Amino acid sequence: MTKHYAGHFDLDEVANYACMSKYHFCRVFSEVYGESPYHYISKMRIEQAKRLLVTSKLSINDICEAVGYTSVGSFSFLFRKKTGMSPTQYRSKLWALVKDPLTYPVQSVPLCYAHHLFGEKIDKSNIE
Where is the HTH araC/xylS-type domain (predicted)? Predict the structure, then answer.
């Protein structure tokens, strides 16, 4: 599911691949991941959209399609619901944080991941 988040999501197909009924798959998935398969896919799509908004010059429509949504309206509504701002506002706000707008700003990377990413001890007192 993580590799194919942008494709058409068919719960029956995924459950069949896992050799389970869709109901049993949903129960097991929710127990393991703490959310439904639909919420997981949605989260993956929004996270990738956030990356693309900051690191590319793709239009909102192109990003919408690249992450697996067919309706820009649905994508924008869900994006706003998850982030508190529209895709355009998100892009503008994060591009304003960096000198080179097409790099992923360190300010938006969680500290634990940044530590893993850069492989060095990060002094938390210097972070605003």
Answer: 1-93
Instruction: Give the Cα separation of 42 and 79 in Å (integer).
Output: 10
Output phi, psi for 97, to 5 deg. -80, -15
- What is the C-alpha separation between 79 and 85, in angstroms, rounded? 7
Distances in Å between the Cα of 51 and the Cα atoms of 28, 47, 122, 126 are 29, 6, 23, 25
Given pLDDT bands bounded at 50, 70 and 90, which one contains residue 109?
A: low
Interhelix angle 37-55/87-95, rounded to 10 degrees, is: 50
**Position 22, amino acid:** K
pTM: 0.70
- Domains (ranges, CATH) in the chain? 42-126 (1.10.10.60)
Task: Tell me the per-residue pLDDT of 63-91, one tens digit each, with 9 for 90 and over.
Answer: 999 999 989 999 999 999 999 999 999 99
Q: What is the pLDDT of residue 11?
A: 86
Residue where the block lists tokens 């239009």: 59
* Contact assessment for residue 57 and residue 102, using Cβ atoms and an 8 Å cutoff: yes
